[in-house]
Amino acid sequence: MSEKSFTIDAFHRGRFHVMQPKGEGHRSGVDAMLLASLVAADGPVSVADLGSGAGAAGLAVASRLPQASVLLVERSPLMADYARQTLALAENAAFADRVEVLEADVGLTGKPRVAAGLLDEVHDHVIMNPPFNDAADRRTPDALKAEAHAMTEGLFESWIRTAGAIMRSGGQLSLIARPQSIAEIIEACGKRFGGLEITSLHPRAGAEATRILVTAIKGSRARLSLRSPLFIHGQDGHAFLTEVDDMNNGRAAYRRLTPAGRLTPSRNRG
User: Fold this and answer.
1) How confident is the model at residue 154 (pLDDT cuts 50, 70, 90)?
2) Closest by Cα among 172, 139, 180 to 156
3) 229 with 200: CB under 8 angstroms?
4) pTM attached to this predicted model
5) Helix, strand and coil in the chain, % to nearest 5
6) Which end of the chain offers a freer environment for a tag, N or C, measured as fewer CB atoms within 10 Å?
7) Domains of the chain: which residue ranges?
């Protein structure tokens, strides 16, 4: 990689850094940090980050949770190499030994999936930020970015099937997506996952949602819950509101609702 082909970006106020391609491919930001905040654990936990790119979301989990082991799963050889380079950064030495990169296609099934290293029923959490552009979106001339962003038919079914296969019973699926994908996500969860909790993300009060956060539990038969919306900014300016800023910077987990409908404590510091 030439010096001009990448940037090294700080996350969680400098607690970890990610090497990302400059001018090509997918670059992680707030979406990845909010996805990572959906993982809440008070002890050892195994997490798989599907379609991890350079690893920002998975690394955010490892940075915040000192007993988390993370598997970064990425199909693109170039992006998997960025993830390996990221783990080699001195700034990430504190947790790099708890993170592994697996170059594999999330869409594999059966024996080919297992042979690729995506083993059955080994993870407590599976997180994903799948490609989100549909056919009506303007296509980018960047082939790597197009691959990372272009949604294909049946993508959620494929990715969520893999999540269910590699996750232990009772494990948590977490994802971030566009609101228009909600029906496909619910259908893909089907009988594999229940207790879906969906939170809409809005730039500010009065604005339409631009993302949804979804969590679900493998094997659960609990009903779907629509949680209170999250607003990213106040009416004035572009500063994050406190709750979102804490999630974005690794100071808080966005925990699921308890059966009684009350929120469990959100602080989960590494």
Assistant:
1) confident
2) 180
3) yes
4) 0.88
5) 30, 30, 40
6) N
7) 3-248
